[in-house]
Specification:
By secondary structure, this protein is mainly β. It contains 2 helices and 21 strands. The termini are close together.
C-alpha cells in the first residue's frame, strides 16, 4: 500500500518545512473499501471548491457509482438514493449548481493517468462540468487532448486496491453490472439480482491535509504536533542520514483530534521528520 507523506526538517536548530501539493484530503468510503484522495486546491481552485460545495452541502449523501467501464473509469456524482433504507426510497439526480470553467490548463496540468480523480462533462463542451466526477482506472492520457482536456483535480493516495477491483470484470470479483434505465446501462452492483442496497454507495468527507508543527523545548527536546487523520495509522518517522533511513518515533490510530509526540534527541543532532499516513 502506497504511503502519503508530509515531512518537516530540523537541522542544528534550523527549522524548515515542506509538504505535498495537496492542501485538502477527500475520504471516499465506498461499499467495497476506502480511498484517500489528495485534492489539488492551489492548481485547480474552482474545481476543488465546486467539489467541496457539493460535499459540504450534503448533496453527495447516499450518492452511488452510476458508471463502470473496466479498464477505463468509474463515475459518480450524478445519482443518489433519497430516503435510503425506508419504504419511500427512490433514485434522484444530484442537485446541479451549474457548470464550472474547465481548469485543465489552469496551474499545473495533471494527466488523466491511473488513480487520478477528474471532472466529467459533456462531450464537445469544455465548460460543462457540474457535479459528476470519475476515477481513471488506467492511463487515459488521451483525455488530456479532448476538447481542451478533462480536468484532473486529485489523485488516490491510499486505496488503489479498491480501484483495482473495478478492473476485474468477473462475477467472482463480487461486482456485477446492471441497467437502471436506457441512460444508465453500466451501473456496478454487488449482487446478480440487485436492489437499492446493492448499489456501490460512496460517502465523501473532506478535511485539510495534516500539517506538522515543531516546537523546540527549553530542555532541547522537540515537540511535534498535528491534527491526526481519522481511521488511518498516523506514524511519525525520523532520520539522521542522507540518503534517509527512516525509523519510527511514534505511531497512533488517528481520531481526527490533535496528536503530539516529544523527541528527546539532543538539540544539535540533525534530524528530519515525516508524517506517514497508512
Amino acid at each position: 500500500m502506497r504511503r502519503t507523506i508530509w515531512w518537516l526538517a530540523l537541522l542544528a536548530g534550523l527549522i524548515s518545512g515542506r509538504g505535498l501539493e495537496a492542501q485538502s484530503l477527500a475520504l471516499f468510503r465506498t461499499s467495497v473499501g476506502d480511498m484517500l484522495v489528495e485534492l489539488y486546491d492551489s492548481d485547480k481552485p474552482v474545481t476543488v471548491q465546486n467539489f467541496k460545495t457539493y460535499v459540504g452541502g450534503g448533496h453527495y449523501q447516499d450518492v452511488f457509482l452510476h458508471r463502470w467501464v473496466p479498464g477505463f473509469v468509474i463515475q459518480g456524482g450524478c445519482l443518489r438514493t433519497l430516503y435510503r433504507n425506508t419504504a419511500s426510497a427512490q433514485i434522484v439526480y444530484v442537485a446541479n449548481f451549474g457548470p464550472i470553467t474547465n481548469e485543465y490548463g489552469v496551474g499545473r496540468a495533471f494527466s488523466n493517468t491511473y488513480g487520478t480523480l477528474a471532472m466529467a462533462r459533456v462531450s464537445g463542451a469544455p465548460n460543462s462540468a457540474t457535479s459528476q466526477w470519475f476515477f481513471n482506472l488506467t492511463n487515459n492520457a488521451f483525455l488530456d487532448k479532448v476538447d481542451g482536456g478533462f480536468t484532473v483535480f486529485g489523485r488516490v493516495a491510499l486505496g488503489t486496491d479498491v480501484l483495482n477491483r473495478f478492473n476485474i470484470f468477473d462475477p467472482t470479483n463480487g461486482i456485477w453490472r446492471a441497467t437502471l434505465s436506457s441512460a444508465f446501462t453500466e451501473v456496478p452492483v454487488l449482487s446478480a439480482q440487485p436492489d437499492l442496497n446493492d448499489l456501490v454507495y460512496v460517502d465523501i468527507t473532506v478535511a485539510p491535509a495534516p500539517k506538522l508543527q515543531l516546537t523546540l523545548n527549553a530542555d532541547g527536546s522537540r515537540q511535534i504536533n498535528w491534527t491526526s487523520l481519522p481511521n488511518y495509522t498516523n506514524r511519525i518517522e525520523y532520520t539522521s542520514e542522507i540518503p534517509p533511513v527512516w525509523q519510527t518515533l511514534f505511531a497512533t490510530n488517528g481520531t481526527g483530534s490533535s496528536a503530539q509526540v516529544v523527541d528527546k534527541a539532543l538539540f544539535r543532532q540533525q534530524r528530519f521528520y515525516r508524517l506517514c499516513i497508512e
